[in-house]
Design a protein that fits this description.
single chain, 299 residues, alpha+beta, seven-stranded antiparallel sheet, 13 strands, 21% helix, elongated
Length: 299
């Protein structure tokens, strides 16, 4: 609040790039947002989104006797603030009170240039009620129960919750609580993780009410020698089997369409074999087919 020289400015004029309409309204300056309102228009600009702000000072009226001849429009004698945002929003602010304009610029300059992350709105926000504070808490066990993981007789009866990554010793970039097929032991998970890049083994991301599941993992460490992992293959097979009523993959039936999606282009997946990675060899993954999305620069 120390940097806010003015919190409200009436009769502020705003023009957005790509739109010649000039809006006349009220500008509010809070600790984290710049808010402009005029009729149905309400424009919120967080200070961290501001890329640059330039103060254009008005020419002095007494600097040239012919100033009126050069600046034919009244607004040319006014100052302005030109703001460019990171999301390509460009706005120009004008005000008849030049001192107010200077105060707005000084406020934006101080609040847009923070000295630490703790000064950002996400760290400064405090809930007014206890109910709101509880609403932002995330409970992985409760979320898995909501989807039906481990519920007897439900669509998630063939899944279980594992805390093998409780101390982040298995995978540093996975959460401590994982949902995996019920018939796969933690020992099998440990060996399967060694076959995946950064130990990101296949784990449940979403379970649909019809029993279909969405799992995620990193690329397998296939390499030039076409290495394979029996534990990883059993894990993928168990994931496919969770959508079956008996929890087992039928030996002679191939009705379900189980897909392994690789977001990379095919060329990238093949080239990664040279560094020990690659993509799944579909000869070892039963009842699955693979699809490449062809997304360049996926990282």
């Amino acid at each position: 609040m120390d940097h806010i020289r003015v919190s409200k400015v009436e009769q502020m004029r705003l023009v957005r790039s790509g739109n010649n309409t000039e809006y006349v309204g009220t500008l509010h300056l809070t600790t984290h947002h710049m808010i402009f309102s005029a009729g149905d228009l309400e424009l919120w600009i967080p200070y961290p989104m501001i890329h640059s702000a330039v103060l254009v000072r008005p020419p002095r009226r007494d600097s040239d006797d012919n100033i009126q001849a050069v600046y034919t429009e009244e607004r040319a004698l006014e100052g302005s603030i030109r703001i460019r945002c990171h999301h390509f929003l460009f706005v120009t602010l004008r005000c008849t009170d030049i001192r107010r304009l200077y105060d707005v610029f000084a406020t934006v300059k101080h609040l847009a240039c923070v000295g630490s992350l703790e000064q950002l709105y996400a760290f400064d926000y405090r809930s007014d009620t206890a109910d709101d504070a509880k609403a932002v808490e995330y409970d992985a066990h409760a979320e898995f129960r909501r989807m039906g993981v481990g519920v007897a007789g439900g669509v998630g009866q063939h899944w279980r919750v594992s805390e093998i990554n409780r101390e982040f010793q298995l995978c540093a970039t996975y959460p401590p609580v994982l949902a995996v097929p019920a018939r796969i032991s933690d020992t099998t998970l440990t060996y399967a993780a060694r076959y995946r890049s950064k130990a990101r083994l296949p784990v449940l991301s979403y379970l649909h009410p019809n029993g279909a599941s969405m799992t995620r993992s990193s690329q397998p460490m296939v390499g030039l020698k076409q290495a394979r992992s029996v534990q990883d293959e059993k894990l993928v097979e168990a994931i496919v089997a969770t959508s079956e009523p008996a929890g087992m993959v039928p030996r002679f039936r191939n009705e379900r369409n189980n897909i392994i999606i690789d977001a990379r282009p095919t060329t990238n997946a093949v080239v990664n074999r040279a560094i020990g990675a690659g993509s799944e060899n579909m000869d070892h993954y039963r009842q699955c087919r693979k699809v490449y999305l062809g997304i360049d620069n996926i990282h």
